[in-house]
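ARCHIVE CARD
CATEGORY: sequence design from structure
SOURCE FIELD: tokenized fold
FIELD CONTENT:
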């Protein structure tokens, strides 16, 4: 079974738009958590398109699983097509967080000429201490033998791992559309493969890029963002 992403959401600016933004959400969450971001962008004259990734939010599919990381990318390509059709003469930017950053980068490696620029917030390129070197080496074998086997702890932990703000963690934990279970073997392996692909090919990117990261991030290692920034051939690139 191939699970599709949810229907795209569009939030149009009532007047002449400055640009179109494709917003790409993070792991285990959904676009409803970004309503304040969409409102802020709309208020500044941007039209925003987004969707819930398959297996996330209101999309169909097993929570915490994806059969192939490429499905995320093909879904995103469709969303970009709709966004481009809405404003064919406008600049189109992609803004992505965490897992969304990994999806956005994988998309951009193939379709860079469709974007005017890329904004990445803590892109998931290297992962925290919960993923051991041994587990990484065995990930492919485990994914084939037991794809839904839990392999690392969930985001739902006694202390806040998502943010310094405990309220952010509470909202995630109590949101029925967020996945609070453990990371499954196949899902984790697909993310590891995609991250390695971006690390290998990231130097090929030349479009304008802004990267932001949290210095104390325990889920996504800041070293991944810094290493990508160093390799980018973009003449217009910023790391914050």
């Amino acid at each position: 079974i191939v699970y599709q992403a949810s229907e795209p959401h569009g939030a149009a600016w009532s007047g002449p738009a400055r640009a179109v933004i494709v917003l790409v959400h993070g792991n285990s969450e959904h676009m409803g958590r970004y309503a304040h971001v969409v409102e802020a962008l709309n208020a500044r004259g941007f039209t925003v398109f987004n969707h819930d990734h398959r297996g996330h939010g209101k999309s169909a599919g097993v929570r915490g699983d994806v059969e192939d990381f490429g499905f995320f990318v093909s879904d995103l390509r469709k969303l970009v097509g709709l966004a481009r059709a809405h404003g064919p003469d406008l600049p189109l930017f992609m803004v992505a967080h965490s897992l969304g950053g990994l999806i956005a980068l994988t998309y951009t490696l193939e379709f860079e000429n469709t974007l005017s620029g890329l904004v990445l917030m803590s892109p998931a390129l290297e992962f925290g201490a919960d993923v051991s070197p041994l587990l990484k080496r065995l990930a492919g074998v485990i994914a084939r033998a037991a794809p839904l086997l839990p392999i690392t702890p969930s985001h739902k932990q006694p202390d806040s791992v998502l943010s310094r703000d405990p309220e952010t963690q509470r909202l995630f934990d109590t949101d029925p559309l967020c996945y609070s279970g453990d990371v499954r073997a196949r899902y984790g392996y697909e993310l590891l493969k995609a991250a390695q692909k971006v690390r290998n090919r990231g130097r090929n990117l030349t479009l304008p890029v802004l990267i932001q990261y949290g210095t104390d991030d325990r889920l996504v290692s800041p070293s991944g963002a810094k290493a990508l920034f160093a390799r980018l051939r973009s003449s217009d690139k910023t790391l914050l």
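CARD ANNOTATION: The two ends are 41 Å apart (CA to CA). The mean pLDDT is 89.
SHELF: design records, drawer C
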